[in-house]
Write a structure and sequence with these properties.
The chain is an alpha+beta fold and about 625 residues long. About 30% of the residues lie in helices and about 20% in strands. Strands 1, 13, 14, 15, 18, 19, 20 and 21 form an 8-stranded mixed β-sheet that branches. A 4-stranded mixed β-sheet has the order 3-12-11-10, covered by helices on one side. A hairpin with a 3-residue loop joins strand 10 and strand 11 (about 275-280). Helix 1 (about 1-20) crosses helix 17 (about 460-475) and helix 14 runs antiparallel to helix 16 (about 420-430). It is globular.
């Protein structure tokens, strides 16, 4: 199998060259040859909850700028309507939540904007005491009214945030008691209530609703279709919210995003960079985080996020000192293009894991993929292990489902579908896809098996996979067309379900609820069940598990759910990925954590004396 894959891979390289993807020659290695390529491999799977990869011999100091490179630009920066990780990575520094993770236990119970919180004896109602010393970036005080307004915005049915709103589907009421107390109730004792109700970004009412359009409506009103249909102001607010300038503050003169976090939005020059600066008036002067992991403002003066879609250009910029940090580079770069003594002296390489998995998604409503036998066959036609070894350099951690592979929800009893082209063809023919007219292409009911694989223009790995699949399926009488799209267009097509096949990454949590992505309620209306997966037992398990507070019983349901996913194959589940990156060794306080994006920049500081010594 190895020999045949290498022959196929040689063909793939030629295809990539002809496709003008800029691929050069590639070396292959046995597993024991790869090692860590001069870097540090970080797997937070035991008692270690935070890993520091930089020296600890100096006290932190303020000052300096960090320039990091990302491959994709946010489609916009409206924190409720955006679904992109690129936007989240910016907005998490500008907005804040009522609660956050405790960095020692990784439970979601550390007060942030809330000074404290309590849960009613029956488990349905959460009361948050809001800190009295929190101020928005424009100087106005943050109060419980802002928190109430924020949940109203999420629950407004006309606001374009269906994926987010689905997480709040059991909220029944919310109110304030004075300026600093916020009360919210759920109809069910949902196991993630604490994380959901305490974990959404709070936005300033005076900025997003200056006319007070939502003031006269309660949460109960916004949950009542007879009210939302009749009251024009609710739709008027949503229309303004969906297109608010705060969501796309582009250009030198744009009004900055107003948040409460330790960083101030600076500017967004589309196609070039987004920048944010330290908030010297940040409210949190008494952090209660673990030793050395401070969110007391930030040490760096400024962070600049450069948008460089091409991986080769990102690495070139790092080597030329135009940027300081690449959070994610290509595996071939990590293992073969950054091993010189000069590079390793100047930069620290790391590979780290976060709860994010890659997948190939089959639109279950397309005639080609409506039969689970065909979806199983597609999975068996993909040589995932060879792809991982020869393309991803072994950085992928194989997965059979959507739950975090190091978490308690993951079902390790399920064996992955094998790479088995012979059985795959048998399944395809059992499903009725045969070359009836002798033109070399399989067909069924007059429909040729000819589909389009949509890939993001910035994703080299997706291009590789699409080209490999195109070649493999050509051999069995199936035509694959590859369509490259800019990220913003790609996302819109995904949310509108205008695709046949996609290759993407889902970023989750240490513990997750599959409702948003997998329940049939979230098909259409721009919900996140993009594949159109429908399964009555799966829906029932998802619904029941959400309100089961006994973790052992809940995880048993999720184990069964993964058995259904395995049988139905709405996705081909690929890998949890070790992200390889590199940063300039001038930076200290560099810590890695097991939640997205794997690091936080609060603790980073720049030892500028190293630059002076080197010059």
């Amino acid at each position: 199998m190895k020999k045949s894959f290498l022959i196929q891979f040689s063909v793939l390289i030629l295809l990539i060259i002809f496709a003008n993807l800029g691929m050069r020659s590639i070396e292959t290695f046995d597993d024991d040859e790869l090692g860590n390529a001069g870097g540090i491999r970080i797997d937070l799977t035991g008692n270690e909850t935070v890993f520091e990869s930089s020296p600890k011999d100096l006290p932190p100091r303020e000052g300096g700028t960090l320039v990091l490179a990302e491959s994709a630009e946010p489609e916009h920066l409206n924190t409720y309507t955006s679904t992109s990780a690129a936007a989240t990575r910016v907005l998490d520094y500008i907005y804040e939540t009522l609660l956050d993770y405790d960095y020692e236990t990784w439970r979601y119970d550390r007060p942030l904007l809330a000074e404290s919180f309590s849960i009613s004896d029956d488990g349905y109602t959460f009361t948050f005491k809001i800190r009295e010393n929190v101020y928005w970036h424009d100087g106005q005080q943050l109060t419980a009214d802002d928190v109430l307004f924020s949940i109203k915005a999420v629950l407004n049915p006309f606001v374009d945030c269906a994926p987010m709103r689905s997480s709040f589907s059991k909220v029944v009421s919310a109110s304030t008691n004075g300026q600093y107390e916020f009360i919210i109730s759920s109809s069910e004792t949902y196991f993630r209530n604490q994380e959901i109700l305490g974990g959404f970004h709070i936005i300033p009412k005076h900025i997003w609703d200056p006319k007070g359009l939502l003031d006269r409506y309660s949460v109960e009103d916004l949950l009542n279709p007879s009210v939302t249909r009749e009251e024009a102001a609710i739709k008027e607010f949503a229309d303004a919210f969906n297109t608010h300038p705060q969501g796309r503050p582009v250009g030198e003169d744009a009004e900055p995003i107003i948040g409460s976090g330790p960083w101030l939005f600076d500017k967004w020059i589309t196609g070039d960079y987004i920048s944010y600066a330290r908030n010297d008036n940040y409210w949190n002067d008494d952090p209660t985080y673990i030793d050395g992991y401070s969110e007391d403002g930030a040490y760096l003066d400024k962070v600049i996020v450069k948008v460089i879609s091409d991986a080769t250009a990102r690495l070139t910029a790092l080597k030329a000192s135009e940027i300081d940090f690449i959070p994610r580079m290509r595996a071939v770069q990590y293992f073969t293009q950054t091993n010189t003594p000069d590079f390793l002296e100047k930069f620290q390489k790391v590979s780290y894991v976060v709860p994010a998995y890659s997948y190939i998604g089959w639109n279950n409503d397309k005639p080609y993929f409506s039969d689970k036998r065909v979806r199983q066959a597609m999975t068996m036609l993909i040589d995932r292990d060879s792809y991982n070894k020869y393309v991803a350099y072994g950085l992928g951690i194989p997965t059979i489902g959507p739950f975090y592979i190091y978490g308690e929800q993951y079902n390790h009893n399920i064996e992955r579908w094998p790479y088995d082209p012979i059985r795959a063809v048998e399944l395809i023919e059992e499903a009725g896809w045969i070359d009836h007219d002798g033109d070399g292409i399989r067909d069924k009911d007059g429909v040729p098996f000819n589909f389009t694989f949509s890939v993001s223009a910035g994703s080299t790995s997706s291009k590789y996979m699409a080209l490999m699949l195109k070649e493999d399926l050509r051999k069995v009488g199936i035509v694959v067309n590859i369509r490259q799209l800019e990220w913003s267009v790609y996302v819109e097509n995904l949310r509108d379900r205008q695709f046949d096949v996609v290759s993407l990454l889902w970023i989750g949590g240490l513990e997750s609820d599959p409702y948003q992505i997998w329940h049939s309620d979230n098909i259409g209306d721009r919900g996140s069940n993009y594949m159109g997966f429908r399964h009555a037992e799966a829906d029932s398990l998802i619904e029941t598990a959400r309100f089961e507070l006994d973790k052992k019983k809940r995880n048993a349901m999720y184990f069964r759910l993964q058995e259904i996913f395995h049988e139905e194959q709405p996705y081909t589940f690929m890998f949890y990925q070790r992200d390889p990156g590199a940063y300039l060794k001038e930076f200290h306080g560099v810590k890695w954590i097991p939640i997205r994006p794997g690091y936080k920049l609060y603790s980073w500081w720049r030892n500028t004396s190293m630059a002076g010594e080197a010059s």
